[in-house]
Q: What sequence folds into this?
């Protein structure tokens, strides 16, 4: 299995990152403060607290893994936001303090996480903390205003404030998650933030709208609204879970089938996996967004599939030693194979142009960045293989540098050299 | 609905006429026109986001949600007027006749649902906190009538336009769609309930989670299709090694699915066996091409190399998470019921069900397609051969299931292989 990040030799993986622990510590303090505060001042409207707490715990129990190693708990978030924004149940005004909202949310999240812990699935403290901080931000702003009676009595005066707060909270949560990812994966912050917001946008919209629906429906339908308006989120979640599942299977299958070239004796064992790991690391170093990284990973895994068309394997599978004309034919054939799937056309394009020089002699369009990355990563792996010898890595990088005039992209080779020779 | 028979025209005409009568009759007093306008817009939005259900252009949309909200808020005539929004749906596909028919259908369903709501004691108008839970009963009755009328009118069209002779093809709509429609219909009462607090902003807020849910379902479906296409493309790439087996995995996969459906396997298992069929021979990659394409009989060493292919296949796909049962199928598809197969020599029930299914489909396709050492045999001869070896090489139950399935649905044997085209080689080394 390829790891999430490239592990440069001799350098320990980014150790436990400070930002991560700062966030968790802050959430822990919030929990302690809010519970203490609520214990002192007493619980306002215990029924509402229990109903919303149950919804949040249920949502946390059904937390969801999204593509790109992310976690979301749409039902829990919607429930917590709705509780933070709640004004009336039936005709009676409800006025929980900000501390109570945070305490109910935090305790319910912990309750919902317990069954996961019981079956040995660890809780992701950072993701849970980010969710709690977002809710705390809404509660701390809205509750004092609402409890003082400063939020008007009609929907057109209440809704804009609520909507604004939900958007701010979503943005805050994205920033926090992006910061954690930047720290852990060596991505750039801007790229991480836009990835985060793109992936979460639809779910955040549904979650926010559901929170508002629950808040307003409680006025007409009482606490029954809490359950009813979680239903569409449940449908969304089931579909997204299956989506994430099939996406994971997809990647596993491509990884497994990419090894056909190894088993057939066309390339060295582990070649496609190593090239794809290195290529993705280079892409990340160069600030490529997540969607492009996924395509790069697919293309890198399948970059040698064209060799299946050869009757006799290239010795050692090292395409770097084969004449350029043949390399291009192998690439072309591989692209044909991938194109048959009809859904991976851009991946096919990357594979097709993987052996084109970075500065074509006829001044035609240079190949896409992903192709240039695969070309360099493939050449590096053909030269170094599974060896961990530092001098061999240095030699290979030196040889690639010689080719930066026309063959290899200098920026790509720089990134590669940073990754494989971190000390230098 | 491209070419309609005379009787179908009469039917469509009658439905249209009934809708026009309903709309013209009124009465139009006491209607809240701005509310009807907003709900009409909601209906247009639902209609515009219809999802296609089958190749004949049958689409499904969440219109029920809007028209049932109108039943509660505006009464029967208002609901009928709101349903006219179907005509304005922005989507490609339906012809003018289809659009008119759909609109008339929704007008009639909404109108009848509206009267049902009143007949069961509901009051048209914006409900307040005191309306619940008294409103639920009449609303449920209205929802059932709405969905029933809608589906009956639609089934009428399908019945009148069904292809002659295609008796086996299902013309009706399935029960699941009924339930889905009722589920979306339930949102109608939520929209109506929220109207007193959120006013015309209600539909916007309700639509967001509903649309995101549908987006998520569509994403899943798209990813699933992409996955299948990719697996099949990669399997074809593997087959280029062995010229004679082109399309073999695809056909074995199809045969295995036929058997699995025939014996009533659960859908997830049918899905798994489809992939197992596609991947059952990936291990052949490890067998030298010269052996695979050999025209004469194999030496002992060569035969041993061929016998290794199920194990090699297993090695390759082991890491694919979903394939638990499929792995056993790939590993053991050359076992025989009498225990004389390879690689393990398992017998009878020791062999997992998937492997026994694959063995039948694999052998049948091998017999009905060309091989380097012999030509293809005709289907009846291959069936006789399957029957002859049932109980020795194959599981008789699966042979029976397969034969029953191909006798009913037919089997497309591969085209005879054209003159051999050589594999590409590298000369420049």
A:
């Amino acid at each position: 299995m390829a790891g999430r990040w490239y592990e440069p030799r001799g350098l320990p993986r980014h150790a436990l990152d400070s930002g991560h622990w700062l966030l968790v510590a802050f959430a822990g303090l919030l929990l302690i403060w809010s519970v203490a505060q609520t214990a002192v001042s007493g619980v306002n409207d215990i029924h509402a607290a229990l109903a919303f707490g149950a919804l949040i715990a249920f949502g946390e129990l059904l937390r969801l893994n999204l593509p790109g190693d992310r976690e979301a708990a749409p039902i829990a978030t919607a429930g917590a936001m709705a509780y933070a924004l709640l004004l009336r149940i039936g005709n009676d005004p409800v006025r929980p303090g900000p501390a109570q909202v945070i305490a109910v949310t935090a305790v319910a999240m912990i309750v919902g996480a317990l069954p996961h812990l019981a079956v040995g699935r660890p809780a992701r403290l950072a993701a849970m903390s980010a969710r709690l901080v977002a809710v705390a931000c809404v509660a701390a702003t809205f509750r004092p205003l609402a409890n003082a009676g400063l939020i008007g009595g009609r929907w057109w005066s209440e809704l804009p404030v609520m909507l604004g707060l939900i958007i701010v909270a979503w943005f805050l949560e994205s920033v926090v998650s992006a910061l954690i990812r930047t720290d852990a994966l060596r991505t750039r912050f801007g790229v991480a933030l836009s990835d985060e917001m793109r992936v979460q946008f639809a779910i955040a919209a549904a979650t926010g709208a559901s929170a508002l629906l629950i808040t307003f429906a409680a006025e007409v339908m009482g606490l029954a609204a809490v359950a009813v308006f979680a239903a569409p989120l449940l449908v969304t979640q089931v579909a997204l879970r299956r989506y994430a599942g099939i996406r994971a299977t997809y990647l596993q299958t491509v990884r497994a089938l990419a090894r056909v070239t190894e088993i057939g004796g066309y390339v060295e064992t582990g070649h496609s996996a190593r090239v794809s790991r290195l290529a993705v690391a280079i892409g990340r170093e160069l600030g490529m967004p997540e969607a492009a990284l996924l395509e790069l990973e697919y293309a890198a895994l399948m970059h040698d599939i064209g060799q299946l068309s050869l009757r006799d394997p290239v010795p050692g599978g090292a395409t770097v030693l084969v004449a350029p004309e043949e390399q291009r034919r192998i690439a072309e054939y591989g692209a044909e194979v991938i194109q048959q799937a009809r859904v991976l056309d851009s991946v096919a394009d990357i594979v097709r142009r993987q052996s084109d020089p970075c500065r074509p002699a006829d001044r035609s369009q240079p190949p896409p960045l992903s192709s240039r990355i695969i070309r360099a990563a493939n050449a590096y792996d053909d030269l170094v293989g599974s060896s961990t010898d530092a001098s061999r890595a240095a030699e290979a990088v030196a040889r690639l540098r010689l080719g930066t005039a026309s063959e290899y992209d200098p920026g790509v080779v720089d990134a590669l050299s940073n990754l494989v020779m971190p000390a230098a | 609905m491209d070419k309609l028979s005379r009787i179908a025209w009469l039917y469509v005409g009658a439905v249209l006429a009934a809708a026009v009568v309903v709309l013209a009759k009124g009465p139009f007093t006491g209607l809240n026109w701005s509310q009807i306008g907003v709900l009409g817009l909601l209906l247009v939005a639902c209609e515009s986001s219809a999802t296609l259900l089958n190749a004949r252009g049958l689409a499904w949309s969440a219109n029920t949600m809007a028209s049932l909200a109108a039943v509660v808020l505006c009464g029967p005539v208002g609901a009928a007027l709101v349903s006219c929004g179907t005509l304005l749906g922005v989507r490609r596909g339906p012809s003018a006749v289809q659009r008119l028919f759909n609109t008339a259908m929704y007008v009639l369903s909404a109108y009848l649902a509206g009267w049902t709501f009143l007949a069961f004691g509901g009051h048209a108008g914006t409900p307040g906190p005191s309306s619940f839970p008294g409103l639920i009963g009449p609303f449920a009755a209205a929802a059932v009538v709405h969905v029933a009328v809608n589906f009956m009118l639609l089934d009428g069209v399908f019945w009148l336009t069904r292809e002659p002779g295609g008796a086996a093809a299902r013309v009706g709509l399935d029960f699941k769609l009924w339930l889905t429609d009722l589920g979306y219909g339930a949102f109608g009462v939520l929209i109506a309930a929220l109207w007193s607090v959120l006013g015309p902003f209600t539909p916007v807020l309700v639509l967001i989670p509903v649309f995101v849910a549908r987006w998520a379902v569509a994403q899943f479906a798209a990813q699933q299709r992409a996955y299948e296409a990719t697996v099949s493309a990669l399997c074809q790439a593997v087959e280029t090694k062995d010229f004679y087996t082109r399309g073999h995995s695809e056909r074995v996969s199809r045969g295995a699915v036929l058997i699995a459906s025939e014996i009533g396997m659960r859908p997830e298992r049918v899905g798994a066996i489809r992939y197992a069929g596609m991947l059952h021979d990936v291990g052949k990659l490890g067998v030298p091409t010269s052996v695979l394409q050999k025209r004469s009989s194999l030496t002992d060493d060569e035969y041993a190399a061929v016998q290794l292919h199920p194990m090699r296949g297993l090695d390759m796909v082991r890491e694919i998470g979903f394939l638990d049962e499929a792995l056993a199928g790939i590993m053991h598809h050359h076992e025989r019921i009498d225990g004389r197969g390879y690689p393990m020599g398992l017998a009878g029930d020791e062999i997992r069900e998937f492997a026994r299914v694959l063995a039948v489909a694999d052998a049948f396709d091998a017999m009905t397609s060309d091989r380097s050492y012999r030509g293809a045999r005709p289907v009846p001869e291959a069936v006789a051969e399957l029957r002859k070896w049932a109980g020795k090489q194959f599981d008789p139950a699966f042979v029976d299931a397969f034969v029953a399935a191909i006798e009913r649905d037919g089997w497309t044997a591969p085209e005879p292989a054209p003159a051999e085209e050589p594999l590409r080689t590298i000369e420049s080394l």
In short: Chain B touches chain A through 61 residues (CB under 8 Å). The first helix of chain B runs from residue 6 to 25. Strands of chain B lie at 51-52, 59-60.
